[in-house]
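Minutes, project check-in
Item: structure for the 263-residue chain
Input as provided by the requester:
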Amino acid sequence: MSLGDQIARNLPYLRRYARALTGSQATGDAFVRATLEAALADEDLKQSLGDGRVPLYRAFNQLWASAYLEVPETVGGGPVDDFAQERLRTITPLNRQALLLTTLEDFSIEQAGEIMDLSPQRIEQLVQEAVSEIDRESATSVLIIEDEPLISMQLEDLVTSLGHEVCGTAATRTQALEVVSSNTPGLVLADIQLADGSSGLDAVDDILAISRVPVIFITAYPERLLTGDRPEPTYLVTKPFQEKTVRAAISQALFFGSSRSPE
């Protein structure tokens, strides 16, 4: 397999991580492009990327660590991106970075330490700090759009265990709109393919036309929505999912959602 093919195979998942870390498709994808541009300009760095996901994420992290507080205004793609960028300028989310690496991206503590250039002990400490933050987060109402009853129940249990309230569940696009017509959620968890053949993407578009709300998509085929070629979701969780992964995604979505100004 060529170097280009090896990098291309891992690139969708780096986009997933970058979007979750920045709270924005536009900003996350811009950092991924900048990482590749840096690799093209440095032959040693480019060759190192053939050794798997860890060197690729490490290269991204080095760029992120040196540049994320200087996110350019032109990167954003709209109001949500503007809010995300403003949040990035005010905090240093090392603990959230460690949490996302070890949950959403499923790296080991040791691999996360290599990516972030920190000891495994420090990574464990950062992850615990992030988990403690999740436990202190303000509660919100959650709409679950999922056509598989067992998965829907699992998500309900997880959401309520985090202290949030489920304002409704839906198995189709129509049902989702019915819930939103009477209950405005503070967060949406959505499958892509729904019971009647309708799309979770379309259901979310309907909701976002009514109210800006953070959305996490849960899908068995995340790479299809991580091409960087069109408007795509910011938060993606892969099926079958682990509870800790969904917990981290919820926390990150609410973290950026809490920085949004009222309409």
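Outcome recorded: The two ends are 50 Å apart (CA to CA).
No further action items on this chain.
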